[in-house]
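Entry type: protein chain
Record version: 2
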Amino acid sequence: MQRFRDSVDLASPVETVWEYYVNPLSLAELTLPSMGMRVVKADTPLREGSRIRFALRPRGFPVEVRWDARISLLKQHEEFVDRQVRGPFEHWVHHHRFEPLTETTSRIVDTLEIGAPMGFFGRLAESFLVAQKLEELFDHRRRILVSRFGSV
């Protein structure tokens, strides 16, 4: 299992960034276009216990991959955690934390625990491919957030 952490400082208050982030439709914008992600169904507004179903069809992949997640923790304007219930990974827990830096600036801290399927071969793929794709994903996410909210 790998643990990945990323953060971005934004020139917008926590409340503004939070409202964007907890909208399940924002997930498509925050995901690499090459992943072919779409939200199929989502309980809104998000709350503890909410479920989100989305589908991925990575470029060059012949079939769509279904992914079901559940919000296991949600503290308004502070944090939420989504956990994979069904999907491509053996383990996926994504913790999103929102920190006010000042009244008009904020920090988002993402911590991701991920475990690939398929035993030894999955761990090999996880070591090389998944880590690289996560770096790309969070680079993309930072660019989108900074373009939308400005950087500090």
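Comment: The first strand starts at residue 2 and ends at 10.
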